[in-house]
Amino acid sequence: MSVRPRFDPNRAARHRRARIGMVVFQLATLVGIVVLMALLYNIINNAFGLAAIEYRIYPATLGLDLETLPQTPRERLLEILETHLSPGLRRSLERTRPLTQRSNEELAALVLERVLQPKVLDTWPLVPSLLHTQDIVAEVHARFPQAEVRWVRWLNTRFLTRPQSSDPLRAGVRTAILGSLWLVAITAATALPLGVAAAIYLEEYARKDRWYNRLIQVNINNLAGVPSIIYGILGLAIFVRALEPLTSGAVFGAVAEGVTANGRTVLSGGLTLGLLVLPIVIINAQEALRAVPNSLREAAYALGATKWQVVWHHVLPEALPGIMTGTILALSRALGETAPLVVVGASTFITFDPVHPFSKFTALPIQIYQWTARPQPVFRNLAAAASLTLLLLLFLSNGIAVYIRHRARQRRLV
Amino acid sequence: MAQTLSPVDLRRRPRRREGLIQVLLLASGLLSILVTLGIVYELVKGAMGFFTRPLWEDTNKPLAADVAPSDTVLPVRPEGAAIPEGAIIRVDEEIMRVQRAEETALQVERGLRGTQPAAHPAGVDIFLEDRVSLWEFFTGIRWIPQAGEFGILPLVNATFIVSAIAMLVALPLGLAIAIYLSEYASPRVNNVLKPLLEILAGVPTVVYGYFALTFVTPLLRRLLGPDVVDIYNMASAGIVVGILVTPLVASMSEDALRAVPRSLREAAYALGATKLETALQVVVPAAFSGLAAAFIVAVSRAIGETMIVALAAGAGPNFTFNPFEAAETMTGHIVRISGGDLSYDSIDYNSIFAIGLVLFLITLVLNTLSQRIVARFREVYE
C-alpha cells in the first residue's frame, strides 16, 4: 500500500482542516438521526389529524353523539332505524336476524353504516391541524359547506380490532395483525429448529477442512445476500404450485370445498419466510455457539459425556440467550418483510380472520403497501396508522430480544 | 484377602443415537444447499419456459378463401406481414408449418402439435409464431408484454439508476458515520448512536416506501418544482434506498476501520499527523478492501430492494436516464406483475422467473466478490 507522504508545514491550517473534518463527520451522523426523526415524524404526522367528514344525515339532527353511539338508549336506535331505513332494506335485515334481537353495538353499527353514512372528503396531517385549525375549518366551510370538521385518530382501538373494509372510517388491521402473527409463528416453527440444528452441525460437528462443510458455510453466507423477492419466487414455484395439495390443505381434507386458497395460504407464506430467515438464524446461532468457552466443552468431555450430551446439556443452554436474541431479530425481519408475501400471493382484501394454516391471509406490511399504493389520500392516513402499529410491534419484539441479552449478561456476571 | 473387582467394560460401545443425531444435524446443514439448488432450478426452469414459449403475433394477413380440412395450400391476401418459409403459423386453433410461401398462397403441413386439420372461413387472420430470443431479451429497450416485446434493458436501466443514486447517498454518509464512530466518538456516544443505527436498519422497507412517497417526493417537488419531478420518480426511491443501506455501509465500514491495527494510527500521530490526516490518509487506505466489500454488499442490497421502488419509483417500464421520471425496476416489475391474480399459464408468469434469474445472478456475483475481498482482507492483519 502506498501512501504518498505530503508534508504541509502550515500547522494552523492543518488543524483547522482537522476541526472541519470532525464537524463534517459529526454532521453526517446527525443527518442519520435527522432522517430517523423525519421518518417517525412523517408517520405520526399522518396517523392523526383533522378530517372533513360528510354525513347523509348529520348525527346532531338526530340528537346522537358519535363518541357514545352504542350507549344511546336502545329504543332510540330502533326508532331511528325504523324511520330512516328503506322498507326493502329493513325487511332484508329483519330476515337475516330480527333487529330487536340484535345487541346495542350491532344496532349502533347499523345506524352509523346505513343511516348516518359518514364519508371522508379530505384529511389534514397532525401538525397543520394543530397550527392552522382555524384556516382548515374555514377552508372546509368554503369547499364543502355540508361537511363537518372532526379530529380523527387513525390509529385507535377500533382500528386494531376491526377487519379490513373499503370504507376508510371503518377499516382496521385485525386480520392483518393475526395474519402477521400466524406467519411469524410458522416461520419460527420451521426456521428455529432447522437453523439451530444447522448451526450446531457447523460449529460443533463439522470438520472445517472438509470441502463440503466449507461449501455449506459459503452457501449460507450467499443465501443471506439473496434478495428477498427471489425467495418469494421460490415460494411461489415450490410451496404455492408444486406442493399445492399440501399447502392448500387438500391432502389433510382440512379445507371445505370451494373455499380453498389454491396454495396461496398462510402456510405457504410462513414457509417462504422461514427459508428467507433461515440463513440469518444460522449465522446468529453460530455466533452464539462460538461464544461458548471451550473449557465448558472440555470439562464435560472429561467427565465422560458423549458429544451430543456435551452439546445438549452444556453448550446449548449456555448459548440459548444468544440464539434467542438472534432468532427474535430474524423474526422481526420476517415481520416486516413484504415483497416475498406479495409474490407468494397474500390476499389484499380479506375480511375474515385466518383460523388455520390453510387460510388465505394478509399481513401488516401488505396492508401498508396496499393502502399506500391507493390513489385516494385518505388511505395514506390508514397506511400511516398501520405503519405505526408495525413499528410498535417491532419495537416490542426487539425490546424482548435486548431484555433477554441483558438478563443473560447479568446472570453471567453473578 | 484382596477383593476381586467386577470387570468394567471399557471398550467403545456403538452409539447409534449419537450417529443418528449427527446425520440429522448434517441434513439441516444440507438443507441450505437444497434451498440454493431449488432457487437455481426453479429460476432456470421458469426462464426456459419464458424463452421457449410460443407467442402468436397477428400478421394481419387474412385467408383469401374458405379452406377445407384436406387442403394443403392456403390462399392468402397479399397485405399484412410477410410469412417466411419454414415458419410455424396458426389459423384459429390449428397449427401449421409453412413449406413454401408465395405472394398469394402458402403451401402448408396441416394439424401440427396435436391440433386437427379443420375448415377455416375466408378473412381469418394468420398468426405467426414468435419466441423471445435471448438477443431481444438482453438488448431490447422496450418491455411491453401486450405487444410481445420483452427487452429487459428498461428494467435493468432503472435498477441501476436507482442503485447509483442510493450509493451516492449511502457511500459518503455511511463512510462518514463509520469514521466518526470508529475514530472520533467516545464509547458513551457509541452506545447511544449504534442502537439508533440499528433502529434505522430495522425499519421495514415498506415503511421506507411510504416515507419516500409521502415525504421525500413532496420535498423534491417543492425544491425542484413539480414540472421537473414526477409524482413517481427514481430519484426519491434512490435517495430512500440509500438511507436504507446507510446503516449497513456504516456498520460494515466501521468493522473494517476498527480492524486496522492501533500501531498504524499511533505511528501517524507520532509523525505529527492530525486526527483527520490519520483517518483519511492512513486508516481509510489501510481498510480499503474492507470498505470496498461493504460498498459492494450495499450495491447488491440496493439492487435487490423491492418495496421502496415498487411504491415510489412508478409502475410501468420506461427507458429513461432522467432520474426525475417514473421508471420501473426489475424488482418493482416482479412485485407489480405478481400482485395481481397471476395466471400460471401466461407469459407474465414466466417473465418473472427470467427477470428473477438476472437479478439473482447480478446479486450473486456482487456478494461473492465482496466475500472474496473480505476473505483476502482478513489474511492481511491476522
Quick summary:
Chain A is mainly alpha-helical and 414 residues long. Chain A has helices at 11-47, 74-84, 87-96, 104-116, 126-131, 133-143, 157-161, 174-205, 211-223, 228-242, 244-247, 266-290, 294-302, 307-336, 339-344, 364-373, 378-413; strands spanning 48-54, 119-123, 148-153.
Give an overview in words.
The complex is a heterodimer of chains A (414) and B (382). Chain A contains 17 helices and 3 strands. Chain A has 414 residues and is mostly helical. Chain A has 2 domains: 49-152, no CATH class; 174-413, MetI-like fold, CATH 1.10.3720.10. The two termini of chain A are 47 Å apart. By secondary structure, chain B is an alpha+beta fold. Chain B folds into 2 domains: 52-131, Thrombin, subunit H; 147-381, Orthogonal Bundle (MetI-like fold). In chain B, 59% of the residues lie in helices and 10% in strands. Chain B has helices at 16-52, 134-139, 153-184, 187-202, 205-224, 234-258, 262-270, 275-286, 288-304, 307-312, 330-339, 347-381; strands spanning 55-62, 73-75, 88-91, 94-101, 105-109, 125-130, 143-144, 149-150. In chain B, the strands form 2 sheets. Chain B has a 6-stranded antiparallel sheet with strand order 1-6-3-4-5-2, with no helix packed on it. In chain B, a hairpin with a 2-residue loop joins strand 3 and strand 4. In chain B, helix 1 (16-52) packs across helix 12 and helix 4 (187-202) packs antiparallel against helix 6. Chain B is flat. The chains are: A mainly alpha (414), B alpha+beta (382). At the A-B interface, helix 1, helix 8, helix 9, helix 10 and helix 12 of A face helix 1, helix 3, helix 4, helix 5 and helix 6 of B.
